[in-house]
Design goal:
Helix content is 21%, strand content 21%. It has helices spanning 57-60, 171-178, 227-231, 254-268, 291-303, 321-334, 348-351, 374-381, 388-400, 403-409, and strands at residues 5-11, 44-48, 63-65, 85-89, 93-97, 103-107, 113-117, 148-155, 161-164, 196-200, 208-212, 239-245, 277-282, 309-312, 360-363, 369-372, 417-420, 423-426. Strand 10 (196-200) and strand 11 (208-212) form a beta hairpin. The radius of gyration is 31 Å and the shape is elongated. The termini are far apart.
């Protein structure tokens, strides 16, 4: 099965911790602080690889972590910077936050490499905290924590024109006739399970890329069948060729088929209703007598008022195909050539800030006030409570984040016990 979406976990590297140490040399009674700084954590980077065309690799490996920065050490030794991790993706991959569905980046049209999660900054060693009044600082700065996210990867093919229609209406046959693509063709539903791309060359004009979007069915926008797997590939196309079985070889009404598919496109993404569309009435080579003209007249009466032209073709014999392609090229030339790029909606640096993380304050049956949540867990992860400055930071954090106010609202009194994961202390103002 063609892999065009995946869910993975990504994490940048944590910054290395600063070091607390003092010079210890012969005949030097009180050496100054010489703790080194921690190294920077590695970045998590996405990069386009022209040799990839599916997301298959991400079905096997789902966790991607950059290297943490090394801790500082004595004698002012700086911790090593963590190695960045470069994740290779095919062009056209859209990266989204898994929880909100918001777009983080679109790896297409010139965006070949982007830092998605920045590595944590290394902490400063205690040498930076020496002052005239504090010549023996026993505090070093912890490294900044790593950033982590669960992300969705969606591959949306990059093509100028998309072929849509019910299964078995002749899209693959049409694509093989007008391009150098060689899709599998057979007379049964869902022959095509992969989007097939090909380049159309027109005499005297620049060519364009056309994609055979696998057959849609009613309910595709709700994910029935393989609806969502296929519909995402239409979003970048600028012109839609709607291929229909005009001869009703399988007993379906071609006009009703067009209405059903168009409704599915709109239900999936309302913007698709504004894309120029042309109808390719296929299989006209098997009509008898006046049948062709009767069917085409009905189709034109139905869709001409909507500005949609109907072209009779035969993908097998090539009848009417050239006229259709010239019309498609005319439509492409008449619209804005700005590529379809999905704008960023999610900014990891801002969204992952500690201040935005939640926490809860609960009272146990024993009267212990328990404070938990990712906000607390992350703060404790980079705060050295045992040091003087670390404890001052901890107290300031409790006040500024509103935790003290919430504890007081719940009736905490001096001497009551507060528990935060592995940390437990008595409350005093």
């Amino acid at each position: 099965m063609f892999a065009d979406h995946a869910k993975i976990y990504i994490r940048s590297g944590k910054g290395g911790d600063g070091h607390v140490s003092f010079r210890r040399e012969l005949h030097v009674a009180a050496g100054g602080p010489d703790g080194g700084d921690g190294g920077k954590g590695g970045d998590l980077i996405f990069e386009v690889d022209e040799g990839l065309n599916t997301l298959t690799d991400f079905r096997q490996i789902r966790k991607y972590c950059a290297e943490d920065g090394g801790n500082g050490s004595k004698k002012n030794r700086h911790g090593a910077d963590g190695k960045s991790l470069v994740v290779k993706v095919p062009e056209g991959t859209v990266v989204k936050d898994a929880e909100t569905g918001k777009v983080i980046t679109d790896m297409s049209h010139g965006n070949k490499r982007e830092v998605i999660l920045k590595g944590g900054r290394g902490g400063k060693g205690n040498q930076h905290y020496a002052t005239p009044t504090m010549q023996v600082p026993k505090y070093a700065q912890p490294g900044k924590p790593a950033q982590e996210l669960n992300v969705l990867l969606e591959l949306k093919v990059i093509a100028d024109v998309g072929l849509v229609g019910f299964p078995n209406v002749g899209k693959s046959t049409f694509l093989s006739r007008v391009t150098n693509a060689r899709p599998k063709i057979a007379n049964y539903h869902f022959t095509t399970l992969n989007p097939n791309l090909g380049v159309v060359d027109i005499d005297g004009h620049n060519g364009f890329v056309i994609a055979d979007i696998p057959g849609l069915i009613e309910g595709a926008a709700e994910g029935i069948g393989l609806g969502h797997e296929f519909l995402r590939h239409i979003e970048r196309t600028k012109v839609i060729i709607h291929i229909v079985d005009a001869a009703s070889t399988e007993g379906r009404d071609p006009i009703e088929d067009i209405k059903v598919i168009n409704q599915e496109l709109i239900a999936y993404n309302p913007e698709l209703a504004n894309r120029p569309q042309v109808i390719a009435a296929n299989k006209t080579d098997i009509f008898f007598g006046d049948e062709e003209e009767t069917v085409l007249t009905k189709m034109r009466e139905e869709f001409a008022p909507q500005g949609i032209e109907v072209y009779p073709i035969s993908a097998v014999s090539g009848k009417g195909v050239k006229e259709l392609l010239y019309k498609v090229k005319e439509l492409l030339d008449s619209i804005d050539d700005t590529p379809v790029v999905f704008e960023r909606e999610f900014f990891p640096e801002e969204e992952l800030a500690t201040s935005d993380l939640p926490y809860t304050v609960e009272i146990t049956e024993e009267g212990v006030f328990t404070v938990e949540g990712p906000k607390i867990e992350r703060m404790l992860g980079y705060t050295n409570i045992d040091s003087e400055k670390g404890f001052e930071f901890f107290q300031r954090f409790l006040r500024q984040s509103g935790i003290i106010d919430e504890l007081e609202e719940k009736g905490i009194q001096e001497g009551d016990t507060v528990k935060m994961y592995g940390l437990q202390f008595d409350y005093y103002k």
